[in-house]
Amino acid sequence: MRITRLRLAATAATALIATAALAGCSSSSGGSDASGSAAPAADPSSLVLALVPSQDQAGLVDTAKPLTDMLTEKLGIPVTGVVSKDYQAAVEAMGADQAQIGFLPSLQLWQASDRYGAKVVLQTERNGAITYPAQFMTNNPSKYCSDTPVDKDGMLYCNGTDKLATPSGLDAITKVAGAKVAVLGPGSPAGYIYPMLALKDKGVDIDNGFQKIPVTANDASVMAVYKGDAEVGFSFWDARTIVKKDTPDVGQKVVVFALSDPIPNDGVAVSSKLSPELQDKISTALADYSNTDAGSAVLKSIYSITKLAPANPSSLDVVARAAEQLGLK
């Protein structure tokens, strides 16, 4: 199944490259063996791990350093983590062999595989769940909540969203008409695709029906609502926990009032240019790491991941179809 491609800016592939010196990271060109046949290209002498900006970009590489250190040790070659400019830049970097490992959202996993033959090796689990919803959140619960918000672990939810039944509360999303709404880029399943599709299904004009406040990451969407720059924001569930350390009252000031249909979890893709042996070593190292207490804690700090499990690439088709329904090209 193929969908219309998302239209990319001409500089998308270079956006990730500019964040780190990547010389020498691409695979070496293959020579010829004694028989004159082309020899397989050698695996690179170093690897780049592409991270997408689901939280503050400045701190994400430092947060992920224990992960890249672990990979460096297990693989025996240096692994460097870099944060892409946006979701699509990470995909294009993998296609250009400027990144060989990608921690990517579900749509970008599908794109990396479909466009460039990347192997989707792992998908994430969060507290035993293999899917997650996008959330609609607000600083104006009197407008969007039809009931009294419920406090759950210091976080407020209304319209039944505390039960994590998906979807829920979607009748309330029509009230965004005319409001300022914090929106991630079109490549984000939780920050754009699924919320926009839900709004479209409810008859909301997603082009002109509300004022879009562009944000670059899920935590920025939360903070836009927290600070009052936007009345409503989209993010993955529950992105408020990312900023709770620095803003302890975020769960009281930012209320979740609706949840989207379930979205397949994000995961890990590895470049098709790597040997099968190195691909397997990467996926095994990551999966084993996620099964340790220390590894689980690091992965949770990066992307709220509690475990990495073998991937089911066909499960990603649903996100590709959702993107297609929005006419993304």
UniProtKB/TrEMBL annotation:
The cross-references to Pfam families, in alphabetical order and at most eight, read: Phosphonate-bd
DNA-binding recorded as keyword: no
Q: Which GO terms describe its biological process?
A: transmembrane transport
Q: Which domain of life is it from?
A: Bacteria
Claim: Signal is one of the keywords in the record? yes
SUPFAM superfamilies for the chain = Periplasmic binding protein-like II
According to the record, the signal peptide region is 1-23
One cellular component GO annotation, for this chain's record?
A: ATP-binding cassette (ABC) transporter complex
| Ranges in a coiled coil | none
PROSITE patterns on file? PROKAR_LIPOPROTEIN
List UniProt keywords, sorted A-Z.
Signal
Protein family membership: Belongs to the phosphate/phosphite/phosphonate binding protein family.
Q: What is this protein called?
A: Phosphate/phosphite/phosphonate ABC transporter substrate-binding protein
Q: Which organism is it from?
A: Microbacterium dextranolyticum
Source species taxonomy: Bacteria, Bacillati, Actinomycetota, Actinomycetes, Micrococcales
